[in-house]
Model the fold of this input.
Amino acid sequence: MGETYSLMGLFFVDDVGDGAAFVRRTVERLRDNGFETTSGGGEMIDRYAVDGDRRVDTDTTLTDAAGEIADSGSGKIETRLESYPVEARFDLDGVGDSELPIPVTLRGPETSAFEEYDVPRELARDRSDRLADGIAGLAVEVDPWLAVAWIPYPHKDAHPYPEGKPPETALETLGWVTVFGETFYDRFGGRERLLEAPAWNVRGLESGAVLVREQETPGSGRSDADPAPDPSTYAYLFEGESLAELRVEIERQRSTYVDPFRDLEDGELASDVVICESHAPFEFEGMNYAAFPDHLDRSDRCHVLCVRRDGDKLWVANTDEFVRRLVDADGRPIGDRPDGVPPDQEMISLVISTEYEDATSFDLYRMESPDDPSVVGGLLGLQRAPDGESIWQDRDDPVTRD
Done:
């Protein structure tokens, strides 16, 4: 089992008023949204901590626990979403002294509550909805000028953490759920424009804030989850692009084909993943990648070949047999097939994609010599064509460059 991480939820609030009441209202709102503070779902507090002193299996009322935390200035109360702990951590002393006061932080649940191979999609979706509703309810209760909830993976370069208050936040990314208070409206062109953000879910809250939910479940995503809408929320909000402009750009990207082997210089080598017409899991007429299915599966491949570029054509490096023509941005091969090559004996590359699909880096295909596999060739198994033989089973005489 790999590493597991926990959701982080930060609520930036400038004034909490009465500390004990703030703690109590926070936990009550979480309870209202299905979070529990006892194993039996009662009104007492099973687990909480004050000044690092952890109290377990207590018979403490929420009022008493909130009072202790307020007197101390910090502490935490454990709530649970089903069997998953979600700690409400309080830092009341920092309010008023800090430029970025965070009087309440949610920590949890762990990503294991949503992982694809352990949790059915319907259950992961239900947990995600309840968690998002809890964040929304808490945002209405404590009225933050910003709230963000995300999985803080250590390998991520950017986290949704502001450097200051609006308009000088330097916020560069969204969380799984982000709640924007009124101070952000001007930054994004007004509340109505914010409500039109092309995220997975956007809703206005009772407090007037706007909640933006980027995807169905928190974390790195599930392959079976409902995808977010096509336009980029980041480009819409942070770069000020209009929805119309974003949709035009998406259509351009979807109709622009990238053949990474066009980056090869004449004589250079790379690993091409190819399939022949007879083994292709789809029917087609003519070599036109725009007419092929959007997602070609490399497991359907016939060969992983070391190819060499010569003009607009690719040839098997060690036999000089014709493999395929390079493909232009419209998805059509460049130039003509060599004499003697029928239409059904030109390989289809499973490497070609559209700009929208975010093609794999060409460095993973590049080769220095026929005996030095590329990264892709090493993973998929580079095949060396037998000298003097064709890569086509029914062809005795290979069509070569000679």
The chain has two domains: 6-244, 259-380. The two ends are 54 Å apart (CA to CA). The helical segments are 19-32, 62-72, 121-142, 191-195, 233-238, 243-254, 375-380.
